[in-house]
Amino acid sequence: MTLFLSLILSLTPEAEFFETDIVLSKIYIAPEIFDNLLKNPLAINSADYDDLSLIPYLTPKIVKAILNYRQEHGKFKNLNELLSIEGIDQELLDKVRQFLTINPNPVKPKMEIH
After folding, report:
1. Which CATH architecture has domain 41-101?
2. Residue whose C-alpha is closest to residue 57's, from 84, 81, 93, 11
3. What is the pLDDT along the chain (114 residues), one digit of tens a residue?
4. I need a labelling partner for 105 at 20 to 30 A (CA). Which of 12, 15, 29, 37 fits?
5. CA gap 49, 52 in Å, rounded
6. How much is the pTM?
């Protein structure tokens, strides 16, 4: 899944931002983009570099480390495995967990009709 999202990574004097823009770790992200990431978390086992780069708080170095780890160890079984990657601690994991998923299509419980 490739998301087309626009991130503004640096400010210039000419740049204009609305009061509704959200500032996360020196990355300026529009509220609709932030909301989209919350509603549609990225599947960590299929996300590529560009996808993972959209996640607030993840630096390019950490994104590369995630991809290298996945290549060397196979698919992640749970998000806590990210703690095995240098540069990711519990604090960072807690911040990014909401934007990531293991299962891209969570199974919804079937409703029984009686």
Report:
1. Orthogonal Bundle (1.10)
2. 93
3. 333 333 333 333 344 444 334 444 455 666 887 888 889 999 999 999 999 988 989 999 999 999 999 999 999 999 999 999 999 999 999 999 999 999 866 544 454 555
4. 29
5. 5
6. 0.67
